[in-house]
Amino acid sequence: MDVERLRYPIGLFEPVTNPTFAQRGEWIRDIEAIPEQVRLTVQSLTPEQLTTPYRPGGWTVQQVVHHMADNDMNAFIRFKRALTEECPLAGSYREDLWAQLDDYNVPVEISLVLMKAVHDRFAALLRSMRENEFERSFISQTHGSMSLNEAVQRYVWHGRHHLAQLLSLRERMGWNN
Ligand code: NI
């Protein structure tokens, strides 16, 4: 299997331009479900399995889980700033360097709890939003102007994307624990 397929098991992000109420409801349910799915995927892994790269040259399982929590926190802050400020310039973060910092050595359990908490807060916020609020936007330093409609979809894609990397590794390695 080629490396790009291992890296992007669900493909690249492709936003829906004018999502329906039903589509958005599905994304919110995904946001609520993903932390538990990640938990089920990694909670029984051994220390050796947790330090296995999900692809050659890629992050380990443990780094992927900590990265997911870091990304969720950043995304939640960007989102809330756009709801309360006029098109703010969103902060960036060096995910490659964050993954090298020492807090990535704490047990994955800590990020599983963190991820669940951020996702539940995010889902509650999304359920409270009026249609026109999804038109609000922020400036991403990597993607330019981004509406909250798109930001929600990116958030869901990001969770599914990394979950699929972990599931694909489990399957390739034949881990049954
Ligand atoms: Ni990521």
Automatic annotation (TrEMBL):
Transmembrane segments: none
Key words, A-Z: Hydrolase
InterPro entries per UniProt: DinB-like, DinB/YfiT-like
Domain of life (superkingdom): Bacteria
One Pfam family it belongs to: DinB_2
Any GO MF annotation of the entry: hydrolase activity
Domain DinB-like: 33-166
Full protein name: Putative metal-dependent hydrolase
